[in-house]
## 1
Amino acid sequence: KHDEALQWYRKDVATRERMLGTDHSLTATSYRNIGNALHAQGKHDEALEWHRKAVAIRERVLGTDHPDMASSYNNIGS
């Protein structure tokens, strides 16, 4: 189940990177989704890499004081 979800999330990332670029909040959401799927598979180190990429984008695009940053920081903490 998680493997299939991960495949779809990777397709989503490829599309968003191509259409929106790598510095867009929706691309960051896709990175977060991959991180969540990897976390569910027990691949915590790999998940953390994706969550950090998402946080870096969101900090640049939204700013560190944006309310959505709380969930991004929570993903790194979990």
## 2
Amino acid sequence: MAQLFNRLGSLGLGIAIAGGIASSALYNVDGGHRAVIYDRFQGVRNYVVGEGTHFIIPWVQKPIIYDVRSRPRNVPVITGSKGRSVGSVVGPAKRGIGRL
């Protein structure tokens, strides 16, 4: 009976270690984000990783995740009129889309 418990203990420890390594080898890139991979030996890799779950080599590669979503921003514009008054226009017509 003791031999059975020893085998179960070592099997459980092996599964826990394998699960920890597998967990550290996966990373997730959310929607609207992109990632570049930093490699300790080669520096920043030359490709961009899109959305989804991806694999890396633990302790050698590190994903750096960036937000690339476009966000609306309001641009205040001061306009002159026919009279001597000056107005300010901020609204849907002067709303631009940019990346921050």
## 3
Amino acid sequence: YPLVCLVSHDCVFLDPLIEEMGGGRGQTSLAGSLLVATYAFTGPVASRLVSKFGTRKVCMAGAIIAAAGLSLGSFTKSLMGVIATYSIVTGIGFGLMYIPSIVAVANHFTQKRSLAIGICL
């Protein structure tokens, strides 16, 4: 089942995930909510890493971490496994990709910077 659907509230895959994982609607939806929370709380760490290593290295590290989290999440059979891999690991990877992408766009565009950042967001 696609785990991306967990972020959405009215998902066609939510009921099969509840059946498969054995949790309730709230517990299963928690995976998507924790993904967004982890993604957001990774921002300050990502900005510090961007200052130290640059946007490209941090963004690539985030992509590798997110890919690992999604890959591991697709093999898990328990709800706690989904929360650990999809929510936490993938959330960290997404957070490490988000901030560097905005910084890279802001540094690249001198004219029409606000438009470029608006498209990036």
